[in-house]
Amino acid sequence: MLNLFKDLFSSDVGLMSAAVIAITLGMGAFYVRYFLSHIASDTAAHRND
To answer: What are phi and psi of 28, to 5 degrees?
Structure first.
């Protein structure tokens, strides 16, 4: 397992893979937050109709 992290953070391909993983997780967190906030605002708007 230690060798895996050593390879991930020491090679160019490993660093690029780590960057892609981080960006993907960040995008996923953004979209979850975005969708949940819009669902909540739409639900509140429909309740006030």
So the answer is: -60, -45
Predicted TM-score of the model (pTM): 0.76
| Distance of alpha carbon 38 from alpha carbon 44, whole angstroms | 10
Helix 12-47 and helix 2-10: axis angle, to 10°? Answer: 90
Q: Which residues contact 8 (CB under 8 A, 6 or more apart)?
A: 14, 15, 17, 18
> How many of the other CB atoms lie within 10 Å of CB of 39?
10
Residue 8: pLDDT band with limits 50, 70, 90: confident
Contacts of 14 (CB under 8 A, 6+ apart): 7, 8
